[in-house]
Amino acid sequence: VKTDAEWRKQLTPAQYMVTRQKATEPPFSGKYAVGHFRGIFTCIGCEAELFSSTHKFNSGTGWPSFYRPLRAEALEQEMDYSTAETRVEVM
Fold it and tell me: What kind and span of H or E run contains 17?
């Protein structure tokens, strides 16, 4: 458990907005959005291992997409109705 000030100190402004304020980075802007990378994708806040690169696929959305988490209990899912197209947000 960290204070808002501690999160702001630990994260860049963009990371803070995405991880703490539910913002979405622009499509195709992240360094992992396009291409295939080897390794484990971890949480920038708590360093939990979330996804393996072997489970990454090209969804064409501009954001990294995975078809299976390493540990489902490390993630939460919530319906997102904030845009015209309903989606499942993974946090």
Answer: helix 13-21
